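Structure in, sequence out. Go:
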């Protein structure tokens, strides 16, 4: 049975929230006898441009200060998004992160300038045989994986598993989860410039009256989506087994890593932080949870949210938890350890 540590707190004071996150982290370290590596990555979500309910940068200050005082060198780490937006390329992504206040430590965009730098991680599961994980994730053996527990239109909810699956995946890995590999060309928007053909390393694209992608040759790297100047190439968001693929990509991202997972059940919205708009919260703030088991953590976050609100919020995402447990990523059975506040 996995342990999940719970610090109940309902506050809009970012300093207090950050101190609660630090205390929760220390509880994991002390109770489970874990040691932090001299260099580690801090996985966060910087928030899309126009979003106001992502977890603010100041909430990480107490943890970062603690790491530095312990002679640990942390770096923020993220990957580029699949859709076209303010976080599509490295320069724009870092600029947005800085604009949102994430300036305390260096930022690494793990899949490079256009999201095409990755390592293939073999997992041989039901739907995914190997995962395209951002190349720079190999730089660290340990991560503090911070997640914002909230809703998601396709996944039901976003938490530790989705932070692993989408947050560690290169653009091609995101594509593999969302669809059945090949992007789609909108012929009306295509200007036949040939940039996608030049970018494709496997000669899967040819030019006719518009660009044509050969799905038999396409390896799903999503580089063509990144370079298209007209946004004429896009992902097919209607792929099958999306929830199970999230679990399997999370498995690949966590493989051989000594991670600690920390989730903010705070600013709970119906949709995710990738939405570039202001959203209303749909529940009261609940607190901070942490665990070394991402499956147990997400299960506990979902259970406590539903118990607190007396509603079946985000229940459509529970199949991801079942599949993650089935493939050996973690356990849905947990022991909740409540941490007393100051």
């Amino acid at each position: 049975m996995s342990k999940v540590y719970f610090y109940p707190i309902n506050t809009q004071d970012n300093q207090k929230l950050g101190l609660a996150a630090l205390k929760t982290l220390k509880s994991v370290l002390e109770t489970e006898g874990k040691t932090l590596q001299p260099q580690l990555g801090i996985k966060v979500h910087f928030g899309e441009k126009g979003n106001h309910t992502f977890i603010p940068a100041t909430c990480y200050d107490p943890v970062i200060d603690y790491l530095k005082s312990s002679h640990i060198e942390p770096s923020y780490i993220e990957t580029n998004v699949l859709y076209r937006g303010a976080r599509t390329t490295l320069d724009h992504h870092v600029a947005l992160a800085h604009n949102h206040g994430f300036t305390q430590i260096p930022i690494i965009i793990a899949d490079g300038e256009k999201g095409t730098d990755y390592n293939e991680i073999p997992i041989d599961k039901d739907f995914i045989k190997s995962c395209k994980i951002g190349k720079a994730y190999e730089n660290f053996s340990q991560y503090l994986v911070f997640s914002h527990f909230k809703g998601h239109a396709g996944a039901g909810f976003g938490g530790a598993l989705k932070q692993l699956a989408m947050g560690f995946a290169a653009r091609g890995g995101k594509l593999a989860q969302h669809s059945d590999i090949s992007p789609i060309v909108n012929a009306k928007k295509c200007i036949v410039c040939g940039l996608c053909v030049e970018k494709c390393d496997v000669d899967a694209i040819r030019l006719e009256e518009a660009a044509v992608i050969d799905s038999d040759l396409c390896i799903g790297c999503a580089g063509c989506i990144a370079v298209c100047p007209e946004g004429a190439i896009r992902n097919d968001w209607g792929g099958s087994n999306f929830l199970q693929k999230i679990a399997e990509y999370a498995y690949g991202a966590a493989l051989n890593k000594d991670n600690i997972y920390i989730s903010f059940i705070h600013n709970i919205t119906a949709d995710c932080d990738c939405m570039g708009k202001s959203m209303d919260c749909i529940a009261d703030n609940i607190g901070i949870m942490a665990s070394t088991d991402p499956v147990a953590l997400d299960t506990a976050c979902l259970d406590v949210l539903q118990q607190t609100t007396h509603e079946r919020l985000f229940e459509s995402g529970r199949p991801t938890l079942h599949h993650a447990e089935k493939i050996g990523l973690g356990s849905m059975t947990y022991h909740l350890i409540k941490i007393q506040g100051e």
